[in-house]
């Protein structure tokens, strides 16, 4: 049932306010004197789908809640289409927020959940009953839940609840859509379907959308731009290609994709490990200590005794089509991982030498 | 196929048939029967028998004597007073309990754990002490008593004192039902409602209150049962003035001390009926709305 989720294309699309630009300027948030956000700035264009990606504790959810008005920043500004949004209470900010655990009203039917944002409006701006009904049923079709309007949340599967939560957020015609770990509580197959489906909904409705995730695959696949966060700071903002191919920091390099990082020194245009050259050229004009980063699958084994990185194999395991070796490298036994063909099993404790085909140097 | 496999296995392992498997969490039959018998005997001796005794004693003199005992003016006054006290104390504690639970479950503030502890105070303090507190506060030798008296307000040995003592004793019932549930439910629903544009009162009446309505109803039922049955605290502040400040439990005691057993048990049987009624209402509600109650737990 969940395998073929595609939006129903209908004539009357969901009525929308025009999508808006969102500017975050130097936002700081301190909880009991421990900063959760250290001066975060970000500009998002109208209609963009942006992922806030980072490990737990990176401040991504805090940033999302500040945008929604559920938390207030200690300092900084948030602008919706150039005008201050922080002065608006959460009710007047007109954002659609989808909570991690959906926060569906358990004593209300699916219909009443979706209609809630419309029925709480003051009488003057509340649509007539028939209009509300029409809009709710239309949204139910949009999220592929037509016919379930009389169910209670407890009678729905996780994926269905998620879609009700999205329909409820869309019902108020939000200016910005915010999703907190939207697929966090779902199993892998449902996640993949909903991910594609969310992208299609976004393309149809055109909201400026932020979603928080700790799943890099989700972020890279779904978002126009990915904002990588760590310890309350933005590490890098870019497209999936930029984040993957030109990581701005060792953190981004290690957080996105598989990677090994080794401390090295740059001497005379050479990269050295423990004072010995490893056969890689240092970037022009750089010297001193640095961090060398490479991908485990992107290396070549060196057997001619030439300059290379060598390490002792401390473990090996099957990794997809390849075999992954875990190494202790250098005098200080830094951990590194490399991949070799699956049929090239090696003795634990033996030495292996390799050079990365592609690598990055991050100055210390 | 499976059958023949099993037979084959049994043939090969003749010892296996002798082993008697049972789920590890199910006790042996003897143990189960023993536990059930012990529980039933205990319930019968300590709960059922006394309740039956109350009704038997109440009806010993026949229905006429029973009716006379209840409609005798002092008894009728006691019943009216008990209903009045409950009618004031229960709504007060409904509001106070809801406010306290709301504050404790949904907000972080200094002194939160102190407030949480204070709510339990009436449970841990002897009811007699609860009554004495009000004598000390409002009695004729207290600071407040004479001042209030000069305005013509009598608290002790009058209805206001009885109401105050009852509120004090029954305060925890509503709050204790609500706090764990509200803490478990968290603030997610409220945040969602706010983000959808609901005002504070709309959030309260359309989201928070419906989420806790069953727990609130239980709390009110228990609170009411205790408010009508409270003896100790009320006894201290009431003054036992017949027809004026006697509640039903106090009236039962007076009748009993006068060796008027039939009348005492007649009034007591009314209190017992109230308790049974409360239990029945609670059970009926649980049975009737089981689905909805289950749905208000976290899904």
UniProtKB/TrEMBL annotation, chain A:
<keyword id="KW-0067">ATP-binding</keyword>
<keyword id="KW-1278">Translocase</keyword>
<dbReference type="InterPro" id="IPR005666">
    <property type="entry name" value="Sulph_transpt1"/>
</dbReference>
<feature type="domain" description="ABC transporter">
    <location>
        <begin position="22"/>
        <end position="256"/>
    </location>
</feature>
<dbReference type="InterPro" id="IPR003593">
    <property type="entry name" value="AAA+_ATPase"/>
</dbReference>
<dbReference type="InterPro" id="IPR027417">
    <property type="entry name" value="P-loop_NTPase"/>
</dbReference>
<dbReference type="InterPro" id="IPR008995">
    <property type="entry name" value="Mo/tungstate-bd_C_term_dom"/>
</dbReference>
<dbReference type="GO" id="GO:0005524">
    <property type="term" value="F:ATP binding"/>
</dbReference>
<dbReference type="InterPro" id="IPR017871">
    <property type="entry name" value="ABC_transporter-like_CS"/>
</dbReference>
<keyword id="KW-0764">Sulfate transport</keyword>
<comment type="similarity">
    <text>Belongs to the ABC transporter superfamily.</text>
</comment>
<dbReference type="InterPro" id="IPR012340">
    <property type="entry name" value="NA-bd_OB-fold"/>
</dbReference>
<protein>
    <submittedName>
        <fullName>Sulfate transport system ATP-binding protein</fullName>
    </submittedName>
</protein>
<keyword id="KW-0813">Transport</keyword>
<dbReference type="Pfam" id="PF00005">
    <property type="entry name" value="ABC_tran"/>
</dbReference>
<dbReference type="InterPro" id="IPR050093">
    <property type="entry name" value="ABC_SmlMolc_Importer"/>
</dbReference>
<dbReference type="InterPro" id="IPR003439">
    <property type="entry name" value="ABC_transporter-like_ATP-bd"/>
</dbReference>
<keyword id="KW-0547">Nucleotide-binding</keyword>
From TrEMBL, chain B:
<dbReference type="InterPro" id="IPR011866">
    <property type="entry name" value="CysW_permease"/>
</dbReference>
<keyword id="KW-0472">Membrane</keyword>
<protein>
    <submittedName>
        <fullName>Sulfate transport system permease protein</fullName>
    </submittedName>
</protein>
<feature type="transmembrane region" description="Helical">
    <location>
        <begin position="261"/>
        <end position="281"/>
    </location>
</feature>
<keyword id="KW-0812">Transmembrane</keyword>
<feature type="transmembrane region" description="Helical">
    <location>
        <begin position="33"/>
        <end position="56"/>
    </location>
</feature>
<dbReference type="Pfam" id="PF00528">
    <property type="entry name" value="BPD_transp_1"/>
</dbReference>
<keyword id="KW-0813">Transport</keyword>
<feature type="transmembrane region" description="Helical">
    <location>
        <begin position="151"/>
        <end position="175"/>
    </location>
</feature>
<keyword id="KW-0764">Sulfate transport</keyword>
<feature type="transmembrane region" description="Helical">
    <location>
        <begin position="76"/>
        <end position="105"/>
    </location>
</feature>
<feature type="domain" description="ABC transmembrane type-1">
    <location>
        <begin position="79"/>
        <end position="282"/>
    </location>
</feature>
<feature type="transmembrane region" description="Helical">
    <location>
        <begin position="117"/>
        <end position="139"/>
    </location>
</feature>
<comment type="function">
    <text>Part of the ABC transporter complex CysAWTP (TC 3.A.1.6.1) involved in sulfate/thiosulfate import. Probably responsible for the translocation of the substrate across the membrane.</text>
</comment>
<dbReference type="InterPro" id="IPR035906">
    <property type="entry name" value="MetI-like_sf"/>
</dbReference>
<dbReference type="InterPro" id="IPR005667">
    <property type="entry name" value="Sulph_transpt2"/>
</dbReference>
<keyword id="KW-1133">Transmembrane helix</keyword>
<comment type="subunit">
    <text>The complex is composed of two ATP-binding proteins (CysA), two transmembrane proteins (CysT and CysW) and a solute-binding protein (CysP).</text>
</comment>
<dbReference type="InterPro" id="IPR000515">
    <property type="entry name" value="MetI-like"/>
</dbReference>
């Amino acid at each position: 049932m969940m395998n073929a989720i595609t939006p129903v294309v209908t004539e009357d699309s969901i009525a929308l306010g025009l999508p808006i630009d969102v500017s975050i300027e130097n936002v700081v948030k301190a909880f009991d004197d421990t900063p959760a956000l250290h001066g975060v700035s970000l500009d998002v264009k109208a209609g963009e789908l942006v992922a806030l990606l980072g490990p737990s504790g990176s401040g991504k959810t805090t940033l999302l809640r500040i945008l929604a008005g559920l938390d207030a920043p200690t300092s900084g500004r948030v602008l919706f289409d150039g005008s201050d949004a922080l002065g608006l209470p959460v009710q007047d900010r007109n954002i659609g927020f989808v909570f991690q655990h959906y926060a569906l009203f358990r004593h209300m039917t699916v219909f009443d959940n979706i209609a809630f944002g419309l029925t709480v409006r003051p009488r003057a701006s509340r649509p007539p009953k028939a209009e509300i009904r029409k809009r709710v049923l239309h949204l139910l079709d949009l999220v592929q839940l037509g016919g379930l309007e009389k169910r209670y949340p407890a009678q729905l599967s996780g994926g269905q609840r998620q879609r009700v939560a999205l329909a409820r957020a869309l019902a108020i015609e939000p200016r910005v859509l915010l999703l907190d770990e939207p697929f966090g509580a779902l199993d892998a197959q449902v996640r993949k379907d909903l991910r594609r489906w969310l992208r299609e909904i976004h393309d149809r409705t055109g909201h400026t959308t932020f979603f928080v995730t700790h799943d890099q695959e989700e972020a890279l696949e779904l978002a126009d731009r990915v904002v990588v966060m760590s310890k309350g700071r933005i590490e890098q903002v870019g497209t999936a290609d930029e984040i993957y191919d030109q990581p701005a920091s060792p953190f981004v390099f290690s957080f996105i994709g598989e990677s090994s990082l080794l401390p090295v020194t740059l001497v005379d245009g050479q990269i050295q490990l423990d004072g010995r050259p490893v056969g890689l050229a240092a970037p022009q004009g750089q010297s001193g200590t640095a961090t060398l980063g490479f991908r485990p699958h992107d290396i070549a084994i060196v057997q001619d005794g030439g300059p290379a990185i060598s390490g002792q194999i401390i473990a090996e395991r099957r990794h997809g089509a390849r075999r992954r070796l875990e190494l202790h490298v250098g005098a200080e036994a830094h951990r590194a991982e490399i991949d070799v063909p699956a049929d090239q099993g090696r003795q634990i404790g033996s030495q292996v030498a390799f050079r990365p085909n592609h690598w990055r140097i991050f100055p210390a | 196929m499976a059958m023949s496999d099993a037979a084959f296995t049994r043939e090969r392992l003749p010892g296996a048939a002798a082993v008697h498997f049972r789920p590890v969490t199910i006790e042996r039959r003897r143990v189960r029967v023993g536990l059930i018998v012990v529980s039933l005997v205990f319930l019968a001796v300590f709960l059922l028998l006394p309740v039956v005794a109350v009704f038997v004693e109440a009806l010993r003199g026949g229905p006429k004597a029973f009716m006379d005992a209840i409609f005798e003016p002092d008894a009728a006054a006691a019943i009216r007073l008990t209903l009045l006290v409950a009618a004031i104390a229960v709504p007060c504690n409904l509001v106070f309990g809801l406010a306290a639970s709301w504050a404790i479950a949904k907000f972080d503030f200094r002194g939160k754990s102190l407030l949480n502890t204070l709510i339990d105070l009436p449970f841990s303090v002897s009811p007699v002490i609860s009554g004495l507190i009000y004598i000390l506060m409002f009695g004729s030798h207290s600071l407040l008593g004479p001042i209030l008296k000069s305005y013509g307000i009598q608290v002790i040995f009058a209805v206001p004192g009885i109401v105050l003592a009852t509120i004090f004793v029954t305060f925890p019932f509503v709050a204790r039902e609500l706090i764990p549930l509200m803490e478990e439910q968290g603030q997610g629903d409220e945040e969602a409602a706010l983000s959808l544009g609901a005002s504070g009162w709309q959030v309260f009446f359309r989201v928070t209150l419906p989420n806790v309505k069953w727990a609130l109803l239980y709390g009110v039922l228990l609170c009411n049962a205790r408010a009508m049955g409270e003896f100790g605290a009320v006894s201290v502040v009431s003054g036992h003035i017949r027809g004026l400040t006697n509640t039903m439990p106090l009236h039962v005691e007076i009748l009993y001390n006068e060796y008027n057993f039939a009348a005492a048990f007649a009034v007591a049987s009314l209190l017992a009926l109230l308790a049974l009624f409360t239990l029945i209402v609670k059970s009926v509600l649980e049975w009737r709305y089981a689905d909805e109650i289950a749905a208000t737990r976290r899904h």
